[in-house]
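Database export, one record per block. Field names are fixed; values are copied verbatim from the stored entry.
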Amino acid sequence: MNQPKRINYGAAQDEYGWGYVRYTITAIQSEVGKKKKAKVTGSALKVVWLTTSRMSMSAYEEKRAEESVCKEQRLTVETQRLDPAIGNRKLSFRESFKGAFSTKPIFHFMPVIAVPKFVVAGSDVTLSVCVRAMPINPKKSDQLGYNFPLPPITLERITLRLKDSTKIRCKGSVVTSEYCGEFADAVVANQTWETKYVFYPTNDNQAYAYEPCLIDFNVPASCTPTFRTCNFRKKWYIKGDAVFSCMSETLKITFRCDMDIISKPRRWNAVGDDHGDASGLMTVGEEEDEDVDVLEMAAAMVEDANVVLEIIDTLSNL
């Protein structure tokens, strides 16, 4: 079993990941020679390509709204500048000296980062970032408990890295059981944005306005779609870093969002096929809004196996 080789034709040409696993079935005919050694008299092989069921347009429309939310992290700002009497002005020497030995005002907030759960290879994925004010006392979530107005928060910059995770089930030796071998995650795409996006509190000063910062990130068309077989698995995720600033304090977080990359539509032996777009997501060779049935895939595999049997019969009659 192996994965189709990716071929990079250069930046001027498109690349398309097919997302298939290829099995090669080989039939060998042999006979015992004079020295009682097997002598191959004929052989033939059949290549079988397996993939996951294609998603219909209706199923894609239902799932495209699903989001993968990163693990939320609570950030803390502790500075004298949270005092309304000081604000953003420069601290005096006395205030700086006093702040080093006294209790400072504390503010808690939580960035919420999300990406679509399903993404088409070769399309843009929109990542959203918003912030949520957190209460001083986690047990009293109905009230923030701050004695100062919520400060504006700025998303200074964000870096996104598209990475894949590949696992292969390996057969152990006589004394060991099966185990999974995992390849080192490779960075497929990497980009940084200097956003300078500001999140402002609502008029009642009880929360931040839900006006997320939207970032478009391109998923290369050469990405092999997410799939899983008995002994092979391919997964994708976005790992990134975000830098926030609040009242002259800088805070950095690292996050990860899992996502599933699905194939673009394919047409067997189609002439002039331009690989379509997301609006053409449908089963190959099927009517629109129909999914590939597992029994149909199994029947196709049986048909391929019958071809191999015919090859074996042909070799036997030679």
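Remark 1: DSSP finds three helices and 15 strands in the chain.
Remark 2: The domain at 59-78+106-283 is CATH 2.60.40 (Immunoglobulin-like).
End of record.
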